[in-house]
User: What shape does this take?
Amino acid sequence: MLGEAEPQWLSEEVKTGTTIIAIEFNGGVVLGSDSRVSAGESVVNRVMNKLSPLHDKIYCALSGSAADAQTIAEMVNYQLDVHSMEIGEDPQVRSAATLVKNISYKYKEELSAHLIVAGWDRREGGQVFATLKGLLTRQPFAVGGSGSSYVYGFVDAEYRKGMNKKECQQFVVNTLSLAMKRDGSSGGVAYLVTIDEHGTEEKVILGNDLPNLFNQ
Amino acid sequence: MEKHYTDSKVKGVSTGTTILAAIFDGGVVIGSDSRASIGGEYVSSKTINKVIQVHDRIFCCMAGSLADAQAVIKSAKSHLSFHSVQMESPPLVIAAASVLKELCYKNKDELQAGFLTAGWDSKKGPQVYVVSLGGMLISQQVTIGGSGSTYIYGYVDAKYKPNMTREECLQFATNALALAMGRDNVSGGVAHLVVITEKGVEHVVVPGDKLPRFNDE
Assistant: This one.
């Protein structure tokens, strides 16, 4: 065969086909994501952290097109810095989510990324906002990305109101673990971010330390 | 929350339904929802039974094109009853699954149907077989199918345990179907369940208002 065709990953769009989840508890939020970035059938990055800080106590989880999602996150990070200097205090989570929503809505035809915004502020405590396609809605928890389809049933069944921080972290890890097992575009390690009034804690759970709920 | 293309215009993807089968200690539960829809927009039947009996202790659930599935099952039923007369004993579950598999494999270019086969026989006890779209036949402990199944992979992976009791397995199956019906717009209605054991066959129908509810409803 004369001449090899160029590798597929050079011509495919880079997507973070992914699983992301954020859940609120009394006093804060927990965000979680997998770490796989794919271009077509190749995994181009197996350790990407999709939980991106927008401010000290506000994070967002990226899904969809990697470039679009990162750009939105960077733009909002900048806009939020300016806003927080103008008001002279830490921004509200709702403000961050609104900034993300504004970009998602205005450029909804050109962009294909979904960001879940979650964080803690003094006024409302822990909050989770979904911003799919320019919608802004506050929810007790939100899942997103290609892997989320497989775990809708699980999160519907297992979510309970009033879970504490540890239970929320376990819920997030279990959900990510199940989704990563079933979704070809999710995998690698699990990143966890816990935000409460005392601070922000980032954690990585390696693949072999993930719970093995799948017993077949 | 990404949109998934699960309608019948896409080749190789199951159409509007949720089906499942699971083995418990001493038997097997097979079940489905009861909605038939046209193009995902109109519910043509709220109470269709997708669990078909192909022999005394062998039941099938169909996925994919309903027309293809019905034609295959009709042909399989007659093969199976003839086979059973020749062997002078009730057919094995794997025989039923194999008959379906032969039909699916030999006609793979024309057909778009897959099956779950569940039953009990005296040789191997309770069994579940999956015949996929192209005609692959495998045996599993628990299996799900149809467009609604996407949403309950995580739930089934987490909650299915081998050697459950009959009640636990029924509850598991009902919960799984209810969760799928709650998220998939082309699955719904009532939950049809059939419990097959050595002693016999029992039909359980759980109407919509008696389905388990989960936190956000």
Observations:
- The first strand of chain A starts at residue 14 and ends at 16.
- Residues 66-87 of chain A form the longest helix (22 residues).
- Chain A touches chain B at residues 63-64, 114, 130, 132, 142-146, 148-161, 174-175, 178-179, 181-182, 213-216 (CB under 8 Å).
- The two ends of chain A are 43 Å apart (CA to CA).
